[in-house]
Amino acid sequence: MESNYSIDRNENLVRVTLGGTVTAESLTRLLKRIGEDPAYHSGMHAIADFRACVGVWDYSEIQRFRDYVVRACGNRPRRWASLVRPGELEAVGRVLIVISEAVETRIRMRLFDELEMAQRWVRGEEP
Predict the structure, then answer these.
(1) Domain locations in the chain as residue ranges
(2) Span 40-70, pLDDT tens digits
(3) Fewer CB within 10 A of the end CB, N or C, for the chain?
């Protein structure tokens, strides 16, 4: 998986662009790297662009990733928007959202196909 990210402390936002094959392990490593960045602080919102990615995760991989996210992110509320194309990763994202809501994480996640809508939602302009 290729990835790059930027952190905007003024906007309280992490922007991530990904490409290639995404696995639960590669995404977890990326989140750890972002979390260790000195510019990052807990509670930042995120917009991740997965539109150039592929990946097929089974349910146990989705659960492992969800468990990591729940432990790593703590109690500060935040919004994570993901840009996806229809297909396998969109399905993975939808399952991740459902099982994350079931354990009442402080992270609200939504999938989008347009950057502008994702940005508006992360800023709280869309319910």
Answers:
(1) 2-122
(2) 998 999 999 999 999 999 999 999 999 998 8
(3) C
